[in-house]
Amino acid sequence: MEGDIAQMGQFIGAGLAGIGSGAAAIGVGHVAGNFLAGALRNPSAAGGQTATLFIGIAFAEALGIFSFLVALLLMFAV
Amino acid sequence: MATEKEGGLVFHPLDQFIVKPLFGDGAVHWYTITNVTLWLALAVVAIVALFVIGTRGRAIVPSRTQSIGEVLYGFTYKMVEDVAGKDAVKFFPYIFTLFMFILFSNFLGLIPMSFATTSHIAVTGVLAAAVFLTVTILGFVKNGTKFLSLFWVSSAPLALRPVLAIIELISYFVRPVSHSIRLGGNIMAGHAVMKVFAGFAAIAAISPIAVVSITAIYGLEVLVAAVQAYVFTILTVVYLKDALHPAH
Amino acid sequence: MASGTETTADAAQGSSGMPQLDFATFPNQIFWLVVTLVIIYFVLSRIALPRIAGVLAERQGTITNDIAAAEELKQKAKEAEEAYNQALAEARVEAQKIGAEAKAEIQKELDKAQAKADAEIAARAAESEKAIAEIRAGAVESVKAVAKDTTKEILSAMGSKADAKAVTAAVTARMKG
Protein backbone atom coordinates (compact mmCIF):
# COMPACT_ATOMS: atom_id res chain seq x y z
CA MET A 1 0.00 0.00 0.00
CA GLU A 2 1.77 3.03 -1.20
CA GLY A 3 -1.28 5.21 -1.96
CA ASP A 4 -2.77 7.57 0.53
CA ILE A 5 -5.68 6.76 2.82
CA ALA A 6 -8.17 8.63 0.62
CA GLN A 7 -7.38 6.41 -2.33
CA MET A 8 -7.85 3.35 -0.18
CA GLY A 9 -11.23 4.71 0.81
CA GLN A 10 -12.11 5.17 -2.84
CA PHE A 11 -11.29 1.59 -3.70
CA ILE A 12 -13.10 0.17 -0.68
CA GLY A 13 -16.10 2.31 -1.55
CA ALA A 14 -16.00 1.17 -5.14
CA GLY A 15 -15.96 -2.44 -4.01
CA LEU A 16 -18.87 -1.87 -1.69
CA ALA A 17 -20.80 -0.16 -4.45
CA GLY A 18 -20.22 -3.24 -6.55
CA ILE A 19 -22.42 -5.20 -4.11
CA GLY A 20 -25.30 -3.19 -5.53
CA SER A 21 -24.92 -4.99 -8.84
CA GLY A 22 -25.54 -8.28 -7.09
CA ALA A 23 -28.59 -6.84 -5.35
CA ALA A 24 -29.91 -5.67 -8.69
CA ALA A 25 -29.35 -9.18 -10.02
CA ILE A 26 -31.54 -10.52 -7.21
CA GLY A 27 -34.19 -7.99 -8.15
CA VAL A 28 -34.11 -8.84 -11.84
CA GLY A 29 -34.28 -12.53 -11.05
CA HIS A 30 -37.25 -11.91 -8.78
CA VAL A 31 -39.12 -10.01 -11.48
CA ALA A 32 -38.41 -12.60 -14.17
CA GLY A 33 -39.16 -15.53 -11.87
CA ASN A 34 -42.48 -14.13 -10.72
CA PHE A 35 -43.38 -13.34 -14.29
CA LEU A 36 -42.64 -16.91 -15.28
CA ALA A 37 -44.66 -18.29 -12.36
CA GLY A 38 -47.61 -16.14 -13.34
CA ALA A 39 -47.19 -16.92 -17.00
CA LEU A 40 -47.28 -20.65 -16.34
CA ARG A 41 -50.49 -20.30 -14.35
CA ASN A 42 -52.17 -18.25 -17.05
CA PRO A 43 -50.23 -18.61 -20.29
CA SER A 44 -52.90 -16.85 -22.36
CA ALA A 45 -52.42 -13.59 -20.45
CA ALA A 46 -48.61 -13.76 -20.52
CA GLY A 47 -48.11 -12.59 -24.09
CA GLY A 48 -49.63 -9.19 -23.47
CA GLN A 49 -47.48 -8.56 -20.41
CA THR A 50 -43.99 -8.92 -21.86
CA ALA A 51 -43.78 -5.13 -22.15
CA THR A 52 -44.54 -4.85 -18.44
CA LEU A 53 -41.92 -7.50 -17.77
CA PHE A 54 -39.26 -5.54 -19.61
CA ILE A 55 -40.20 -2.32 -17.86
CA GLY A 56 -39.96 -4.07 -14.50
CA ILE A 57 -36.60 -5.58 -15.37
CA ALA A 58 -35.39 -2.21 -16.62
CA PHE A 59 -36.35 -0.47 -13.38
CA ALA A 60 -34.68 -3.12 -11.28
CA GLU A 61 -31.59 -3.11 -13.42
CA ALA A 62 -31.28 0.67 -13.52
CA LEU A 63 -30.55 0.70 -9.80
CA GLY A 64 -27.80 -1.86 -10.26
CA ILE A 65 -26.36 0.32 -12.98
CA PHE A 66 -26.47 3.27 -10.57
CA SER A 67 -24.33 1.36 -8.10
CA PHE A 68 -21.95 0.40 -10.89
CA LEU A 69 -21.79 4.07 -11.83
CA VAL A 70 -20.98 5.00 -8.25
CA ALA A 71 -18.17 2.44 -8.30
CA LEU A 72 -16.83 3.87 -11.53
CA LEU A 73 -17.04 7.40 -10.22
CA LEU A 74 -15.12 6.41 -7.10
CA MET A 75 -12.49 4.62 -9.13
CA PHE A 76 -11.91 7.13 -11.87
CA ALA A 77 -13.60 10.43 -11.29
CA VAL A 78 -13.33 11.42 -7.64
CA MET B 1 -7.87 -7.24 -9.51
CA ALA B 2 -5.21 -9.41 -11.01
CA THR B 3 -1.80 -9.93 -9.57
CA GLU B 4 1.04 -7.73 -10.68
CA LYS B 5 3.35 -8.99 -13.43
CA GLU B 6 6.71 -7.53 -14.18
CA GLY B 7 5.42 -5.47 -17.09
CA GLY B 8 2.62 -4.11 -14.95
CA LEU B 9 -0.98 -4.99 -15.68
CA VAL B 10 -2.43 -1.81 -17.10
CA PHE B 11 -6.14 -1.30 -17.27
CA HIS B 12 -7.61 1.39 -19.43
CA PRO B 13 -11.24 0.31 -19.44
CA LEU B 14 -12.53 3.81 -20.02
CA ASP B 15 -10.07 4.96 -22.67
CA GLN B 16 -12.37 3.64 -25.35
CA PHE B 17 -14.87 6.34 -24.45
CA ILE B 18 -12.51 9.27 -24.91
CA VAL B 19 -13.79 11.78 -27.41
CA LYS B 20 -11.00 12.87 -29.72
CA PRO B 21 -10.86 14.80 -32.98
CA LEU B 22 -10.77 12.63 -36.05
CA PHE B 23 -8.25 14.86 -37.81
CA GLY B 24 -5.36 16.42 -35.95
CA ASP B 25 -4.93 16.82 -32.25
CA GLY B 26 -6.60 20.09 -31.44
CA ALA B 27 -9.16 20.89 -28.79
CA VAL B 28 -12.69 19.59 -29.13
CA HIS B 29 -14.87 22.50 -30.18
CA TRP B 30 -18.59 22.08 -30.73
CA TYR B 31 -18.13 21.88 -34.51
CA THR B 32 -15.05 19.62 -34.48
CA ILE B 33 -15.44 16.39 -36.41
CA THR B 34 -14.66 13.75 -33.79
CA ASN B 35 -15.01 10.00 -33.47
CA VAL B 36 -18.48 10.71 -32.07
CA THR B 37 -19.35 12.38 -35.36
CA LEU B 38 -18.01 9.43 -37.32
CA TRP B 39 -20.05 6.82 -35.46
CA LEU B 40 -23.18 8.92 -35.39
CA ALA B 41 -22.78 9.34 -39.13
CA LEU B 42 -22.34 5.59 -39.52
CA ALA B 43 -25.58 5.07 -37.61
CA VAL B 44 -27.29 7.41 -40.08
CA VAL B 45 -25.73 5.53 -42.99
CA ALA B 46 -26.89 2.20 -41.58
CA ILE B 47 -30.42 3.46 -41.06
CA VAL B 48 -30.54 4.95 -44.55
CA ALA B 49 -29.15 1.73 -45.98
CA LEU B 50 -31.79 -0.38 -44.28
CA PHE B 51 -34.84 1.84 -44.62
CA VAL B 52 -34.23 3.74 -47.83
CA ILE B 53 -31.98 1.59 -49.99
CA GLY B 54 -33.28 -1.68 -48.54
CA THR B 55 -36.91 -0.82 -49.24
CA ARG B 56 -36.42 0.83 -52.63
CA GLY B 57 -37.95 -2.19 -54.38
CA ARG B 58 -41.33 -1.58 -52.66
CA ALA B 59 -41.90 -5.25 -53.34
CA ILE B 60 -45.14 -6.98 -52.41
CA VAL B 61 -43.03 -10.02 -51.65
CA PRO B 62 -40.24 -8.33 -49.69
CA SER B 63 -36.53 -8.82 -50.08
CA ARG B 64 -34.48 -9.69 -47.02
CA THR B 65 -33.56 -6.12 -46.03
CA GLN B 66 -37.05 -4.90 -46.75
CA SER B 67 -38.60 -7.50 -44.50
CA ILE B 68 -36.20 -6.53 -41.69
CA GLY B 69 -37.38 -2.95 -42.07
CA GLU B 70 -40.99 -4.05 -42.14
CA VAL B 71 -40.59 -6.19 -39.04
CA LEU B 72 -39.04 -3.27 -37.13
CA TYR B 73 -41.79 -0.97 -38.39
CA GLY B 74 -44.56 -3.37 -37.46
CA PHE B 75 -43.04 -4.14 -34.07
CA THR B 76 -42.70 -0.48 -33.10
CA TYR B 77 -46.07 0.47 -34.53
CA LYS B 78 -47.80 -2.27 -32.57
CA MET B 79 -45.94 -1.29 -29.40
CA VAL B 80 -47.01 2.36 -29.71
CA GLU B 81 -50.59 1.38 -30.49
CA ASP B 82 -50.87 -1.22 -27.73
CA VAL B 83 -49.24 0.75 -24.94
CA ALA B 84 -50.22 4.35 -25.61
CA GLY B 85 -53.39 3.94 -27.64
CA LYS B 86 -54.60 4.95 -31.07
CA ASP B 87 -54.09 8.69 -30.61
CA ALA B 88 -50.37 8.18 -29.90
CA VAL B 89 -49.81 6.87 -33.41
CA LYS B 90 -49.07 10.36 -34.73
CA PHE B 91 -45.95 10.39 -32.54
CA PHE B 92 -44.84 7.15 -34.11
CA PRO B 93 -42.11 8.65 -36.38
CA TYR B 94 -40.59 10.40 -33.38
CA ILE B 95 -40.49 7.19 -31.34
CA PHE B 96 -39.29 5.17 -34.29
CA THR B 97 -36.44 7.64 -34.81
CA LEU B 98 -35.36 7.23 -31.18
CA PHE B 99 -35.64 3.45 -31.33
CA MET B 100 -33.70 3.09 -34.56
CA PHE B 101 -31.00 5.53 -33.50
CA ILE B 102 -30.41 3.77 -30.19
CA LEU B 103 -30.61 0.29 -31.68
CA PHE B 104 -28.15 1.03 -34.46
CA SER B 105 -25.79 2.99 -32.20
CA ASN B 106 -25.79 0.15 -29.68
CA PHE B 107 -24.99 -2.43 -32.32
CA LEU B 108 -22.41 -0.26 -34.04
CA GLY B 109 -20.80 0.27 -30.64
CA LEU B 110 -20.39 -3.49 -30.35
CA ILE B 111 -18.08 -3.63 -33.36
CA PRO B 112 -14.54 -4.10 -32.02
CA MET B 113 -12.46 -0.89 -31.98
CA SER B 114 -15.60 1.15 -32.53
CA PHE B 115 -16.91 4.01 -30.44
CA ALA B 116 -20.15 3.48 -28.51
CA THR B 117 -21.96 6.79 -28.81
CA THR B 118 -24.82 5.66 -26.58
CA SER B 119 -22.42 5.04 -23.71
CA HIS B 120 -22.05 8.78 -23.24
CA ILE B 121 -24.22 10.55 -20.71
CA ALA B 122 -24.19 13.59 -23.00
CA VAL B 123 -25.88 11.61 -25.77
CA THR B 124 -28.35 9.63 -23.66
CA GLY B 125 -29.00 12.71 -21.53
CA VAL B 126 -30.06 14.69 -24.59
CA LEU B 127 -32.29 11.85 -25.71
CA ALA B 128 -33.89 11.51 -22.28
CA ALA B 129 -34.24 15.28 -21.86
CA ALA B 130 -35.88 15.52 -25.26
CA VAL B 131 -38.36 12.82 -24.26
CA PHE B 132 -38.96 14.43 -20.88
CA LEU B 133 -39.54 17.91 -22.28
CA THR B 134 -41.73 16.67 -25.11
CA VAL B 135 -43.85 14.57 -22.80
CA THR B 136 -44.23 17.27 -20.15
CA ILE B 137 -45.10 20.03 -22.63
CA LEU B 138 -47.41 17.70 -24.51
CA GLY B 139 -49.13 16.73 -21.27
CA PHE B 140 -49.84 20.34 -20.36
CA VAL B 141 -50.91 21.30 -23.89
CA LYS B 142 -53.25 18.33 -24.25
CA ASN B 143 -54.72 18.21 -20.77
CA GLY B 144 -54.03 21.66 -19.26
CA THR B 145 -53.93 21.61 -15.48
CA LYS B 146 -55.60 18.21 -15.50
CA PHE B 147 -52.14 16.86 -16.28
CA LEU B 148 -51.31 17.53 -12.63
CA SER B 149 -53.74 14.78 -11.66
CA LEU B 150 -50.89 12.47 -12.57
CA PHE B 151 -49.40 13.44 -9.21
CA TRP B 152 -52.65 13.64 -7.24
CA VAL B 153 -53.53 9.98 -6.73
CA SER B 154 -57.30 10.18 -6.33
CA SER B 155 -57.66 6.51 -5.42
CA ALA B 156 -55.53 6.92 -2.26
CA PRO B 157 -56.90 8.09 1.13
CA LEU B 158 -57.02 11.87 1.38
CA ALA B 159 -54.46 12.05 4.19
CA LEU B 160 -51.92 10.14 2.14
CA ARG B 161 -52.35 12.15 -1.04
CA PRO B 162 -49.90 15.01 -0.29
CA VAL B 163 -47.21 12.50 0.61
CA LEU B 164 -47.91 10.48 -2.51
CA ALA B 165 -47.92 13.67 -4.54
CA ILE B 166 -44.41 14.49 -3.37
CA ILE B 167 -43.23 10.97 -4.11
CA GLU B 168 -44.85 11.03 -7.55
CA LEU B 169 -43.35 14.43 -8.26
CA ILE B 170 -39.87 13.25 -7.31
CA SER B 171 -40.25 10.08 -9.33
CA TYR B 172 -41.44 12.15 -12.26
CA PHE B 173 -38.33 14.31 -12.19
CA VAL B 174 -36.06 11.33 -11.65
CA ARG B 175 -37.42 9.83 -14.86
CA PRO B 176 -35.02 11.55 -17.28
CA VAL B 177 -32.08 10.81 -14.98
CA SER B 178 -32.81 7.10 -14.74
CA HIS B 179 -33.88 7.02 -18.36
CA SER B 180 -30.52 8.33 -19.56
CA ILE B 181 -28.28 6.61 -17.03
CA ARG B 182 -29.95 3.24 -17.61
CA LEU B 183 -29.03 3.29 -21.28
CA GLY B 184 -25.63 4.94 -20.97
CA GLY B 185 -24.67 2.95 -17.89
CA ASN B 186 -25.62 -0.39 -19.42
CA ILE B 187 -23.62 0.21 -22.56
CA MET B 188 -20.67 1.69 -20.69
CA ALA B 189 -20.67 -1.15 -18.14
CA GLY B 190 -20.66 -3.80 -20.84
CA HIS B 191 -17.86 -2.22 -22.77
CA ALA B 192 -15.78 -1.51 -19.67
CA VAL B 193 -16.18 -5.07 -18.41
CA MET B 194 -15.08 -6.39 -21.77
CA LYS B 195 -12.03 -4.16 -21.66
CA VAL B 196 -11.19 -5.34 -18.15
CA PHE B 197 -11.33 -8.97 -19.29
CA ALA B 198 -9.26 -8.05 -22.32
CA GLY B 199 -6.67 -6.77 -19.85
CA PHE B 200 -6.74 -10.13 -18.05
CA ALA B 201 -6.07 -11.84 -21.37
CA ALA B 202 -2.53 -10.43 -21.26
CA ILE B 203 -1.70 -12.87 -18.46
CA ALA B 204 -0.86 -16.21 -20.08
CA ALA B 205 -2.19 -18.35 -17.22
CA ILE B 206 -5.74 -17.04 -17.32
CA SER B 207 -5.94 -15.80 -20.87
CA PRO B 208 -8.09 -18.75 -22.11
CA ILE B 209 -10.61 -18.08 -19.37
CA ALA B 210 -10.50 -14.38 -20.20
CA VAL B 211 -11.07 -14.95 -23.90
CA VAL B 212 -13.99 -17.32 -23.20
CA SER B 213 -15.41 -14.76 -20.78
CA ILE B 214 -15.12 -11.99 -23.36
CA THR B 215 -17.00 -14.15 -25.83
CA ALA B 216 -19.73 -14.84 -23.30
CA ILE B 217 -19.98 -11.20 -22.27
CA TYR B 218 -20.08 -10.18 -25.91
CA GLY B 219 -23.10 -12.42 -26.39
CA LEU B 220 -24.73 -10.86 -23.35
CA GLU B 221 -23.93 -7.41 -24.67
CA VAL B 222 -25.63 -8.15 -27.99
CA LEU B 223 -28.72 -9.01 -26.00
CA VAL B 224 -28.31 -5.93 -23.79
CA ALA B 225 -27.93 -3.68 -26.82
CA ALA B 226 -31.29 -4.79 -28.19
CA VAL B 227 -33.05 -4.91 -24.83
CA GLN B 228 -31.86 -1.47 -23.74
CA ALA B 229 -32.99 0.08 -27.02
CA TYR B 230 -36.34 -1.61 -26.53
CA VAL B 231 -36.58 -0.53 -22.91
CA PHE B 232 -35.72 3.07 -23.72
CA THR B 233 -38.38 3.09 -26.40
CA ILE B 234 -41.09 1.43 -24.40
CA LEU B 235 -40.48 3.74 -21.45
CA THR B 236 -40.79 6.66 -23.85
CA VAL B 237 -44.10 5.23 -25.02
CA VAL B 238 -45.25 4.73 -21.43
CA TYR B 239 -44.38 8.34 -20.60
CA LEU B 240 -46.22 9.41 -23.72
CA LYS B 241 -49.26 7.47 -22.54
CA ASP B 242 -49.05 9.28 -19.19
CA ALA B 243 -49.02 12.58 -21.05
CA LEU B 244 -51.99 11.70 -23.25
CA HIS B 245 -54.06 9.98 -20.57
CA PRO B 246 -52.84 11.29 -17.19
CA ALA B 247 -55.63 9.66 -15.16
CA HIS B 248 -54.34 6.59 -13.36
CA MET C 1 -4.27 -3.05 -4.95
CA ALA C 2 -1.91 -3.27 -7.84
CA SER C 3 0.08 -0.23 -8.65
CA GLY C 4 -0.87 -0.66 -12.29
CA THR C 5 -4.43 0.19 -11.42
CA GLU C 6 -3.29 3.18 -9.49
CA THR C 7 -1.30 4.43 -12.42
CA THR C 8 -4.36 3.89 -14.56
CA ALA C 9 -6.46 5.86 -12.15
CA ASP C 10 -3.80 8.51 -12.02
CA ALA C 11 -3.49 8.56 -15.77
CA ALA C 12 -7.24 8.74 -16.18
CA GLN C 13 -7.38 11.52 -13.64
CA GLY C 14 -4.51 13.14 -15.36
CA SER C 15 -6.31 13.26 -18.68
CA SER C 16 -9.95 13.73 -17.88
CA GLY C 17 -11.24 11.25 -15.32
CA MET C 18 -14.24 9.53 -16.77
CA PRO C 19 -14.55 10.52 -20.42
CA GLN C 20 -18.31 10.60 -19.91
CA LEU C 21 -17.90 13.44 -17.42
CA ASP C 22 -15.50 15.48 -19.53
CA PHE C 23 -17.81 18.43 -19.96
CA ALA C 24 -15.53 20.01 -22.55
CA THR C 25 -16.72 17.48 -25.10
CA PHE C 26 -20.42 17.90 -24.34
CA PRO C 27 -21.20 20.69 -26.82
CA ASN C 28 -19.54 18.69 -29.58
CA GLN C 29 -21.48 15.50 -28.81
CA ILE C 30 -24.78 17.27 -28.35
CA PHE C 31 -24.36 19.24 -31.56
CA TRP C 32 -23.61 16.18 -33.67
CA LEU C 33 -26.28 14.15 -31.91
CA VAL C 34 -28.91 16.74 -32.72
CA VAL C 35 -27.75 16.85 -36.33
CA THR C 36 -27.93 13.05 -36.48
CA LEU C 37 -31.37 12.86 -34.95
CA VAL C 38 -32.75 15.51 -37.26
CA ILE C 39 -31.35 13.73 -40.31
CA ILE C 40 -32.70 10.36 -39.16
CA TYR C 41 -36.07 11.88 -38.33
CA PHE C 42 -36.46 13.47 -41.74
CA VAL C 43 -35.18 10.45 -43.62
CA LEU C 44 -37.55 8.17 -41.73
CA SER C 45 -40.63 10.34 -41.60
CA ARG C 46 -40.35 11.69 -45.19
CA ILE C 47 -39.05 8.69 -47.11
CA ALA C 48 -38.88 5.41 -45.25
CA LEU C 49 -42.01 5.25 -43.12
CA PRO C 50 -44.52 6.33 -45.80
CA ARG C 51 -42.92 3.87 -48.17
CA ILE C 52 -43.12 0.98 -45.71
CA ALA C 53 -46.67 1.93 -44.71
CA GLY C 54 -47.58 2.02 -48.42
CA VAL C 55 -46.03 -1.36 -49.07
CA LEU C 56 -47.77 -2.87 -46.06
CA ALA C 57 -51.13 -1.42 -47.07
CA GLU C 58 -50.64 -2.59 -50.64
CA ARG C 59 -49.74 -6.06 -49.47
CA GLN C 60 -52.76 -6.10 -47.20
CA GLY C 61 -54.91 -5.12 -50.17
CA THR C 62 -53.37 -7.78 -52.37
CA ILE C 63 -53.84 -10.41 -49.70
CA THR C 64 -57.46 -9.37 -49.20
CA ASN C 65 -58.06 -9.50 -52.94
CA ASP C 66 -56.40 -12.85 -53.24
CA ILE C 67 -58.44 -14.22 -50.39
CA ALA C 68 -61.61 -12.90 -52.02
CA ALA C 69 -60.62 -14.48 -55.33
CA ALA C 70 -59.84 -17.73 -53.61
CA GLU C 71 -63.20 -17.57 -51.88
CA GLU C 72 -64.91 -17.04 -55.23
CA LEU C 73 -63.06 -19.95 -56.79
CA LYS C 74 -64.01 -22.10 -53.86
CA GLN C 75 -67.63 -21.11 -54.32
CA LYS C 76 -67.38 -21.99 -58.01
CA ALA C 77 -65.84 -25.33 -57.21
CA LYS C 78 -68.63 -26.00 -54.78
CA GLU C 79 -71.23 -25.13 -57.38
CA ALA C 80 -69.56 -27.38 -59.91
CA GLU C 81 -69.52 -30.19 -57.42
CA GLU C 82 -73.19 -29.66 -56.70
CA ALA C 83 -74.03 -29.71 -60.39
CA TYR C 84 -72.02 -32.86 -60.80
CA ASN C 85 -73.76 -34.48 -57.87
CA GLN C 86 -77.13 -33.50 -59.28
CA ALA C 87 -76.26 -34.88 -62.69
CA LEU C 88 -75.08 -38.06 -61.06
CA ALA C 89 -78.31 -38.40 -59.09
CA GLU C 90 -80.35 -37.75 -62.24
CA ALA C 91 -78.39 -40.31 -64.18
CA ARG C 92 -78.91 -42.78 -61.43
CA VAL C 93 -82.67 -42.19 -61.38
CA GLU C 94 -82.74 -42.49 -65.19
CA ALA C 95 -80.80 -45.71 -65.03
CA GLN C 96 -83.16 -47.07 -62.42
CA LYS C 97 -86.13 -46.11 -64.56
CA ILE C 98 -84.67 -47.76 -67.61
CA GLY C 99 -83.84 -50.80 -65.58
CA ALA C 100 -87.35 -50.99 -64.19
CA GLU C 101 -88.86 -50.59 -67.64
CA ALA C 102 -86.71 -53.29 -69.07
CA LYS C 103 -87.53 -55.49 -66.16
CA ALA C 104 -91.27 -54.89 -66.62
CA GLU C 105 -91.04 -55.60 -70.35
CA ILE C 106 -89.13 -58.74 -69.73
CA GLN C 107 -91.61 -59.76 -67.09
CA LYS C 108 -94.48 -59.12 -69.49
CA GLU C 109 -92.87 -61.18 -72.21
CA LEU C 110 -92.02 -63.82 -69.74
CA ASP C 111 -95.60 -63.90 -68.49
CA LYS C 112 -96.86 -64.10 -72.06
CA ALA C 113 -94.51 -66.91 -72.89
CA GLN C 114 -95.39 -68.70 -69.73
CA ALA C 115 -99.10 -68.32 -70.40
CA LYS C 116 -98.58 -69.66 -73.91
CA ALA C 117 -96.52 -72.51 -72.59
CA ASP C 118 -99.11 -73.19 -69.92
CA ALA C 119 -101.87 -73.24 -72.53
CA GLU C 120 -99.88 -75.52 -74.76
CA ILE C 121 -99.10 -77.80 -71.88
CA ALA C 122 -102.72 -77.82 -70.88
CA ALA C 123 -103.78 -78.63 -74.45
CA ARG C 124 -101.25 -81.37 -74.71
CA ALA C 125 -102.26 -82.75 -71.37
CA ALA C 126 -105.92 -82.77 -72.44
CA GLU C 127 -105.01 -84.51 -75.69
CA SER C 128 -102.95 -87.01 -73.82
CA GLU C 129 -105.75 -87.58 -71.38
CA LYS C 130 -108.16 -88.09 -74.20
CA ALA C 131 -105.81 -90.56 -75.81
CA ILE C 132 -105.33 -92.32 -72.54
CA ALA C 133 -109.09 -92.40 -71.99
CA GLU C 134 -109.56 -93.81 -75.51
CA ILE C 135 -106.86 -96.34 -74.94
CA ARG C 136 -108.37 -97.21 -71.60
CA ALA C 137 -111.85 -97.50 -73.13
CA GLY C 138 -110.39 -99.59 -75.89
CA ALA C 139 -108.68 -101.76 -73.35
CA VAL C 140 -111.88 -102.26 -71.36
CA GLU C 141 -113.72 -103.20 -74.50
CA SER C 142 -110.99 -105.64 -75.40
CA VAL C 143 -111.01 -107.09 -71.92
CA LYS C 144 -114.81 -107.43 -72.13
CA ALA C 145 -114.57 -109.10 -75.47
CA VAL C 146 -111.78 -111.36 -74.30
CA ALA C 147 -113.67 -112.19 -71.08
CA LYS C 148 -116.83 -112.97 -73.05
CA ASP C 149 -114.96 -115.10 -75.49
CA THR C 150 -113.09 -116.83 -72.76
CA THR C 151 -116.22 -117.41 -70.74
CA LYS C 152 -117.98 -118.75 -73.88
CA GLU C 153 -115.09 -121.03 -74.63
CA ILE C 154 -114.94 -122.24 -71.05
CA LEU C 155 -118.65 -122.86 -70.99
CA SER C 156 -118.58 -124.65 -74.27
CA ALA C 157 -115.65 -126.62 -73.15
CA MET C 158 -117.52 -127.60 -70.06
CA GLY C 159 -120.27 -128.78 -72.31
CA SER C 160 -122.99 -126.34 -71.66
CA LYS C 161 -124.35 -124.14 -74.29
CA ALA C 162 -123.52 -120.62 -73.56
CA ASP C 163 -126.17 -118.10 -73.46
CA ALA C 164 -124.60 -115.08 -75.10
CA LYS C 165 -126.81 -112.67 -73.38
CA ALA C 166 -126.25 -114.03 -69.88
CA VAL C 167 -122.55 -114.22 -70.40
CA THR C 168 -122.41 -110.66 -71.47
CA ALA C 169 -124.43 -109.52 -68.49
CA ALA C 170 -122.29 -111.55 -66.11
CA VAL C 171 -119.06 -110.26 -67.55
CA THR C 172 -120.31 -106.69 -67.45
CA ALA C 173 -121.38 -107.13 -63.80
CA ARG C 174 -118.05 -108.63 -62.97
CA MET C 175 -116.18 -105.92 -64.74
CA LYS C 176 -118.04 -103.29 -62.76
CA GLY C 177 -117.29 -104.95 -59.53
UniProtKB/TrEMBL annotation, chain A:
- Where in the sequence is the signal peptide annotated? none
Main localisation, per the record?
Answer: membrane
Subcellular location, in the record's words? Cell membrane; Membrane
**Location of site Reversibly protonated during proton transport?**
E61
Q: Which residues cross the membrane?
A: 12-33, 53-77
Topology of the protein relative to the lipid bilayer: Multi-pass membrane protein
Q: Which domain of life is it from?
A: Bacteria
| Pfam entry (one) | ATP-synt_C
Per its database record, what is this protein's job? F(1)F(0) ATP synthase produces ATP from ADP in the presence of a proton or sodium gradient. F-type ATPases consist of two structural domains, F(1) containing the extramembraneous catalytic core and F(0) containing the membrane proton channel, linked together by a central stalk and a peripheral stalk. During catalysis, ATP synthesis in the catalytic domain of F(1) is coupled via a rotary mechanism of the central stalk subunits to proton translocation. Key component of the F(0) channel; it plays a direct role in translocation across the membrane. A homomeric c-ring of between 10-14 subunits forms the central stalk rotor element with the F(1) delta and epsilon subunits.
What protein is this chain from? ATP synthase subunit c
Q: What organism is this sequence from?
A: Sinisalibacter lacisalsi
Query: What taxonomic classification does the UniProt entry list for its organism?
Result: Bacteria, Pseudomonadati, Pseudomonadota, Alphaproteobacteria, Rhodobacterales
Automatic annotation (TrEMBL), chain B:
Q: Where in the cell is it found?
A: Cell membrane; Membrane
Q: Specify whether Cell membrane is a keyword of the entry.
A: yes
| Residue stretches spanning the membrane | 30-54, 91-115, 121-141, 148-174, 194-215, 222-240
Q: Which residues form a coiled coil?
A: none
The record, for Pfam families, names: ATP-synt_A
The protein's matches in PROSITE patterns, at most eight in alphabetical order, are given as: ATPASE_A
Record-linked InterPro entries: ATP_synth_F0_asu, ATP_synth_F0_asu_AS, ATP_synth_F0_asu_bact/mt, F0_ATP_A_sf
Question: Which key words are in the record?
Answer: ATP synthesis, Cell membrane, CF(0), Hydrogen ion transport, Ion transport, Membrane, Transmembrane, Transmembrane helix, Transport
Q: Which CDD domains match?
A: ATP-synt_Fo_a_6
Q: How does it sit in the membrane?
A: Multi-pass membrane protein
Give the chief site where it resides. membrane
- Explain the purpose of this protein: Key component of the proton channel; it plays a direct role in the translocation of protons across the membrane.
Concerning its family, UniProt says: Belongs to the ATPase A chain family.
- Protein name as catalogued: ATP synthase subunit a
Q: Which organism is it from?
A: Sinisalibacter lacisalsi
Q: Which gene encodes it?
A: atpB
From TrEMBL, chain C:
* Protein's UniProt keywords contain Coiled coil: yes
Which compartments does it reside in? Cell membrane; Endomembrane system
Q: Where are the transmembrane segments?
A: 30-49
- Principal location: membrane
Q: Which Pfam families match?
A: ATP-synt_B
Q: Which InterPro entries match?
A: ATP_synth_b/b'su_bac/chlpt, ATP_synthase_B_chain
Superkingdom, natural source: Bacteria
Bilayer topology reads: Single-pass membrane protein
Q: Which UniProt keywords apply?
A: ATP synthesis, Cell membrane, CF(0), Coiled coil, Hydrogen ion transport, Ion transport, Membrane, Transmembrane, Transmembrane helix, Transport
Where are the coiled-coil regions?
Answer: 63-136
- Describe its assembly: F-type ATPases have 2 components, F(1) - the catalytic core - and F(0) - the membrane proton channel. F(1) has five subunits: alpha(3), beta(3), gamma(1), delta(1), epsilon(1). F(0) has three main subunits: a(1), b(2) and c(10-14). The alpha and beta chains form an alternating ring which encloses part of the gamma chain. F(1) is attached to F(0) by a central stalk formed by the gamma and epsilon chains, while a peripheral stalk is formed by the delta and b chains.
Q: What does this protein do?
A: F(1)F(0) ATP synthase produces ATP from ADP in the presence of a proton or sodium gradient. F-type ATPases consist of two structural domains, F(1) containing the extramembraneous catalytic core and F(0) containing the membrane proton channel, linked together by a central stalk and a peripheral stalk. During catalysis, ATP synthesis in the catalytic domain of F(1) is coupled via a rotary mechanism of the central stalk subunits to proton translocation. Component of the F(0) channel, it forms part of the peripheral stalk, linking F(1) to F(0). The b'-subunit is a diverged and duplicated form of b found in plants and photosynthetic bacteria.
Q: Which HAMAP family does this UniProt record tie to the protein?
A: ATP_synth_b_bprime
Q: Which family does it belong to?
A: Belongs to the ATPase B chain family.
Q: What is this protein called?
A: ATP synthase subunit b
In its UniProt entry, the species of origin is given as Sinisalibacter lacisalsi
Query: What does the organism's lineage look like at the top?
Result: Bacteria, Pseudomonadati, Pseudomonadota, Alphaproteobacteria, Rhodobacterales
